[in-house]
Amino acid sequence: MSNQGNIELGDIHWLMDILQNIDVGLVVMDSEYRIQLWNGFMESHSGLSPQVAKGENLFKLFPDIPETWFREKCQPVFQLKTRTFTIWEQRPYLFHFKNYRPITGRATFMYQNTAIIPLESISRSIDHICVIIYDVTDIAINRRDHELQLAAIQPGRDTPSCSASIIAPAIPAASALEVTNKPEPAAPDITAHQIKPQATETIESAVIVRDRHSWDDTLNRQLARCARSEQPGCLVCLQIDNNSSHYDESLLALFNRSLRQSDTAYHCDDLLFALLDNSDAGDARFFAERVRKAIKRLGDHYSVSIGIAPYIDEFESGEDWQLAAEEALLQARHQGLDCNQVFEP
Q1: Would residue 25 count as lying in a domain?
Q2: DSSP state, 230?
Q3: Biological process GO annotation list (predicted)?
């Protein structure tokens, strides 16, 4: 029995060694977001030792992390025991770490994907979560280089500038009611895949929706998916005032490049819609603010009003969902130029 006990203690010892030396960040937090575990990766990149980090509130230790957005990401982990994720195309990083990798030294910060997983206690309750941080800087930089090469080969293409991006892909994307004149805490924008618009096309699982019938089908499918899976979803409605009754291709292209491959978009008259799968209101506000900033960089004469409608059980059809997004847009416009509004029933 004693030998078996020694083996178990030895197992714990080398497991702790693995946790401390693995090349991903591991942060364990309780329900009050107090740090309980801080591994070697996090110590190396933050400059904070486990002794300093342990017991500290995450948002006090890292005030640049948008608290509302991150809490909304973690709530389903605590409450539903489901994993959630963030990806660099949606938000470049969770922790603002410098990039020390020699090959990708052109990036000033580390691009990150994260997974947030539930940790079950002996009583089967979820009192702690683990955030896993992956360094994906190489992937982000290679993506940017590839787009620059495409831009050089196709002179008509817009050149990416590590900023957000035009009209539409279809399938799922990222995750209250208050007017938001202030942007989410700043994070550098990043260009997603550039997609050359055509009448209808599929590019690496991203679908550009050009007709109303296809858009209605897409909305209804997403509505059913949200109802069935209990995962969040958001519909974003944008209206751009540019002293013109139509949007030129460069403006639409900018909007499209802001979207991820899993997003769906639709252009109807002077309204732009983006359907974001597995995204809550915080994710949608971050996306909307990123698009607004990118458009404003085209010129001060542009103003962008944005309505956001998170999925709710009261929606009986895709049309209900779209009307909610348009209602939020009208409320945003009543507040003034460059405002965001989240729909509340």
Answers
A1: yes
A2: -
A3: regulation of DNA-templated transcription
d(CA 154, CA 256): 18
List the CATH number of the domain containing 270.
Answer: 3.30.70.270
What confidence category does residue 175 fall into, taking pLDDT thresholds of 50, 70 and 90? Answer: very low
- The answer to whether residues 34 and 55 touch, using CB atoms and an 8 Å cutoff, is yes
Is it the case that residue 162 has pLDDT exceeding 60?
A: no
- Domain coverage including residue 312: 159-342
- Average pLDDT in the 171-188 region? 36
As a whole number, mean pLDDT of residues 148-152 equals: 65
128 and 228 fall within a common domain: no
Burial class (CB in 10 A: 0-12, 13-18, 19+), 254: buried
Identify whether the C-beta of residue 24 lies closer than 8 Å to the C-beta of residue 134.
Answer: yes
The string of DSSP codes covering 180-219 is E-SPSSP------------SSEEETTEEEE-SHHHHHHHH
Q: Which segment of 95-99, 116-120, 127-131, 168-172 scores lowest on mean pLDDT?
A: 168-172
The tokens of 92 are what?
A: 């470049």
pTM of the predicted structure, to 2 decimals: 0.46
Interatomic CA distance for residues 22 and 340, integer angstroms = 41
Token pair in block for residue 183: 């942007």
Asked whether the beta carbons of 24 and 132 are under 8 A apart, the reply is yes
Q: What is the CATH number of the domain that holds 87?
A: 3.30.450.20
Whether residue 117 is predicted with pLDDT greater than 80 in this model: the reply is yes
H-run or E-run covering 60: helix 58-61
Per-residue pLDDT tens digits for 217-252: 889 988 988 888 878 889 999 998 875 555 667 777
Does residue 147 form part of some domain? no
Q: Is 148 within a domain?
A: no
Q: Are strands 126-135 and 25-30 parallel, antiparallel or unpaired?
A: antiparallel
Give the per-residue pLDDT at 178.
Answer: 33
**109 and 169 share a domain?**
no
